[in-house]
Design goal:
The two termini are 20 Å apart. This protein is mainly α. The chain has a single domain, classed as 5'-nuclease (Rossmann fold), CATH 3.40.50.1010. It has helices spanning 10-17, 23-32, 40-48, 53-65, 73-88, 95-107; strands at residues 6-8, 36-37, 110-112. The protein is built from six helices and three strands, in the order E-H-H-E-H-H-H-H-E. Helix 1 packs across helix 2 (23-32) and helix 3 (40-48) packs antiparallel against helix 4 (53-65). The chain has a three-stranded parallel beta sheet.
Length: 129
């Protein structure tokens, strides 16, 4: 999927799981419209934050139900170069988020996030609600 898909970042998926508005409603709308996407990094970040087996099973079921885009070797290379470029400008961001941004740019999709540092990455389209 390209163009109208939206990568829901870990931050907004946590809001969805906690039923925290307005992001929970916006994520639900993306699910219903079949525009929501995830990545392996986001799935792992969500699962690492679970507190017990029941919560882990619920989060695993949710993440498996969301289509995942592949972060290929070429996208990882793009992410590394992008991160290096940002660091030369004095901007240090989590590599996981730079990889998500690189994937979004590669697939021509937007990122739905509450993390402002995505705005520091040139070329990333931020999904607005």
């Amino acid at each position: 999927m390209t163009g109208d898909g939206v990568i829901a970042d870990t931050s907004v998926l946590i809001d969805f799981l906690k039923n925290k508005e307005p992001n929970a409603e916006a994520v639900a709308a993306l699910i219903v419209s079949k525009r929501i996407l995830t990545t392996g990094i986001i799935m792992a970040e969500l699962l690492q934050g679970t507190r017990n087996a029941r919560e882990e099973a619920y989060v695993a079921e949710l993440t498996e139900a969301i289509p995942a885009i592949e972060i290929t070797a070429a996208i990882w290379i793009k992410a590394g170069k992008l991160s290096s470029s940002l660091k030369r400008k004095g901007i240090t961001l989590p590599l996981s988020d730079v990889a998500i941004a690189a994937a979004a740019m590669e697939y021509n999709i937007s990122v739905f996030t509450i993390d402002d540092h995505f705005k520091q990455i040139p070329g990333v389209r931020i999904h607005e609600i």
